[in-house]
Amino acid sequence: MTPDLICLLILALWSIPLNHIPALARVAYSDISWGMGNREKMPEVPPWVERADRAQRNHHDNLTTIAVVILITQVTGQSDNVTAIASVIVVVLRIPLFCHFPE
After folding, report:
1. How far apart are CA 86 and CA 11, in angstroms?
2. Which keywords has UniProt assigned to this entry (predicted)?
3. Per-residue pLDDT tens over the stretch 32-72
4. Averaged over 77-81, what is the pLDDT?
5. Tag placement on the chain: N or C end, fewer CB within 10 Å?
């Protein structure tokens, strides 16, 4: 597997904690009935939970575009050191960006 595809796999797997962190935080700040219900009313949460929601949406919005670019370079045989370095940079910059929660 090429470095480009490994980076794409890492980004796809990064979606798992991004999906669960905001939901688990909301359950922690309310009660389990919120998590089991239809969630009409959102509980009061600290700003970092809202930031985690925005980071999750941003990641999912951009993951498709990143995946298309990486997969096109793979299918057309144009992946090289430049695309590998670019893929690594995307991973290295996206994951720590989520961990920074400015208020």
Report:
1. 13
2. Membrane, Transmembrane, Transmembrane helix
3. 777 777 777 888 888 888 888 888 999 999 999 999 999 99
4. 94
5. C
Burial of 8 (0-12, 13-18, 19+ CB in 10 A): buried
Do 91 and 36 form a contact (C-beta atoms < 8 A)?
no
Which residue from 26, 20, 22, 1 is spatially nearest to 87, judged by alpha carbons?
Answer: 1
C-beta atoms surrounding 64 within 10 Å: 9
Buried-exposed string 54-63: b where 16+ CB fall within 10 A, e elsewhere: ebbeebeeeb
